[in-house]
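Task: encode each sequence below as C-alpha cells.

Item 1
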Amino acid sequence: MNKELANKIKILSEQVYEEALTHRKHLHAYPELSWQESQTSKYIQDFLQKENIEYSIIASYGIVGNIKCKNPESRCIALRADMDALPIQEENEVSYKSCNDGVMHACGHDVHMACLMGAIKVIKELKNEIEGTIKFIFQPSEEKQPSGAQKMIEEGVLENPKVDEIYGLHVTPELECGKIGYRAGKFMASADEIYITIKGPGGHASQPHKSVDTILVASHVIVALQQIVSRNADPLMPTVLSFGDIHGYGATNIIPTEVKIKGTLRTFDETWRSDIHEKIISITKGISEGMGATCEIEIPEGLPYVLNDEFLINQSINKLQHLFDNENLIEMPIRMGAEDFAYYSHQVPSCFYRLGTSNNNTQLGKKLHTSIFNIDDSSIKFGVMLLVSSIV
C-alpha cells in the first residue's frame, strides 16, 4: 500500500463514518438472537439494494455478495461480519438502547456489521484501485450451535468465486479505541460443550443407604475431572475445563434420581482435544458405575481453534503501518475464548483481528457479554480502515 492510497482510505473511512454509526445504532436498538436475524438481514439487504450491490441469501438469514474490482478473476478476498445478539437485558441508558426485551448486542456484532457496511462503501469508491473480487459475508448465529459459519461453508459461501483469503474482526474493550490487536498462528481456543447426566434410584434423604446418592456421585465426577488439566495436560498446552451448571432436581429431604452437569472444554490441539473427550467419558463412567449410578455423556462437536495465517498477518501488519502508528498495533496473547470464524480459518488462509473500543470513560471499558457493554463510537471508522486495508 502506498502513501496516496493509505490517505484515500483514511479520508473515505472518515466520510462514511457517520452513516456507519447510524447503522450501528439502528442494529443495536433492534437485536435478534441466533437463527432469528430476519429483520437484521432485511436491514442489510435494504442497504445493499440502495448501494446497487448484488447479493444472495444463504444459511437462512445470511447474506453474501461481491464487488468486482480490477481483474475480477485474479483473486477473491472475503470480509466477514456476524449478525446475532445475546439473551441479555440491556442496562445502558442510551438513545439506541435495545428495544427487544431480553436481547442485546453485548458482544459487539452490531459494530462488526456497521464496520463492514462502511467498508463496502469505501471499496466501491476504490474499486478501480483494487485487484480482484471482494466478497462480503454477513453471517448468522456466531453465538450458538449449530454454527452459522459452518452452515454457510456447507452451503458454499467460500465458492463461486472461490475465496483465496478471508478477514474478520472482533471488538474488545481490553484495547483502547484506535488500537488493533493481532496474533499470528493459533489465536483463539477450540470450544466444546459438555453435558453429563448422572442417574440412580433416588429416595428420602433420611435413608441414603436405600438410594444411590446422585449428588455425591456428581460431586466426585466434577472433582475427578479436574485432574485432566492438573495432571494430564501438557503444562505448555493451554487447556480449560470448567463446569458452570449443576442441577440436582432434589430438595432438602430428597435425593434426586438424576443430576445434570454442564461444562465447557477449551484448548489448542486437536489430538489432545480428542484425548480429553475420551478421558471425560472414561472417568465419568468409572466413578458412576463404581458408586452404583449410571451416566449419559454428550460432547457434541464444537468449534475448532482460530488459526491466523502467519504470512497474511505479517503482510497485513505491513499495510496497517501506513494507517496506524506502530504503538497502536498490539501483538496479543492467545485467548481461551472461542469464535466460529475458526471454521473459515481451517478452510482458507485467514486473519482475525481485535478492534479496540474503550477509552478513559469507564462506561466504555466494560466487559463483553455484560448488560452494560458499549463502545467508543469512533472505533467504527478504525474498523472500516482495518477491513479495507486487508483487501488492497
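Item 2
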Amino acid sequence: MDNNRIGKKIASLRKEKGLTQEELGQKLFITDKAISKWERGLSLPDITLLEKLADELDTDIYTILQISKKKDVNIEKILNEERKRIKKEMNKRNKILLVCFNCIIVFILFKLLPIGYDVIHVRYDFNGQNKVINLGAPKFSFLIKNNENNYSIKNFRGNYILKSEVKNYLSTLKQISCYDTTYYYDKNTDITIIDYSVKSRLLWNNITYGVRNGNYCNQLEVLDYNEKLGGLLRFHTYQSNDSSLYVTFLDKSDVSSEKLSWEAQFSVYNGKEILEKSNGTFKIENDELTYYRKDISFKSNNLKIPNESHFVVRNNKLILKDDYLDKYKKGIILD
C-alpha cells in the first residue's frame, strides 16, 4: 500500500463529489484537518470510518485503498501495518528535522554568543631582532598570518561578537594617547597595537592587528621633537659681539627609556658671572617649548628666575619669550 496514492485517491473522489474537506468531515463527524492528513498521506482512515467514507464517495474500500478484491483480505491488518510504516517514516523525518533545528541553534549560538579569546604568542621581527609578542585571538580562530607589522586572523564567528572580544583583549593593555589618537601598549612584550579591524568576508571574518615595537607614542613624540628642534641631544646657544650674555639649553633626555621624559639643563652666564644653573623638563605644544624648572642649582641674587620659561620654536631655533633677562639682553635667540 502507498499512503500517498491513497490520499490522492480520496482527494480525487471528494472533488468528483463536489465536496470540500470541511463538508466531508461533517458527514463523517471528524474535522477537516483529519481529511487533510489523509489526502497528504500523513495518516490513514480508521477501519471503522472506511466503509462510511466509501459510501459518501460512492465507491468501495478496495478502490480507496487501491488493493485487489480478494477473499480473506484482512483490511484492518493491512491498515495497521501501513500506519506503523507511516509512523516510522514520520519519526525518521522528525529526527532529521530535530537534528537540523539543533544545528541551526548551535550555529546561531556559535555566531552570536561570547565565548572569549585566547592570548596567542607570535613571532615579531624588529630590525633583525626576533621576539615573541602577544595578540588576542577570539576562540576558534585559524590561519594566522603576518606581513611585516600586520597580523591577520580568520574566524567564522559573528562580526559583532568578534569586535567585542577584540575590545575585551585590548582593555587588558595600557591605553596611551598622543596626537588625538589612542593606542594599546603591551608592557610585557614592549609593543604597541596602533590599529585593529574586524572585517566581514564571504565565509569568515578577518581580524587584523597593526603593531609597532616599543611605545609608539614615544616614537611619534621623538620624531616630532626631532623635526622641530633639528635633532635631539644638542646645544642651543647664543652669544653676540655687543653682549657678554651666554645662554645654553641642553637636551638631556633618554629617548630609549620606556617612560619618555624630556629632560634639560639650562644655564645663563654674564661674562664669567653665573646667573642661573637649573635642571628640569620641557614639552613642545603648538610650536612653543615650555621649560619647567625642577632644581635650580645656582641663581644670581640680582635675578628673579620664573618656575617655567617659554620659547617660540621657529626654524630649529628657540626664541625666549620671557623678559626676566631683558636687562642683560633683549630678544634672546638660541641657535
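Check on item 2: The two ends are 107 Å apart (CA to CA). The chain is about 35% helix and 35% strand.
End of task.
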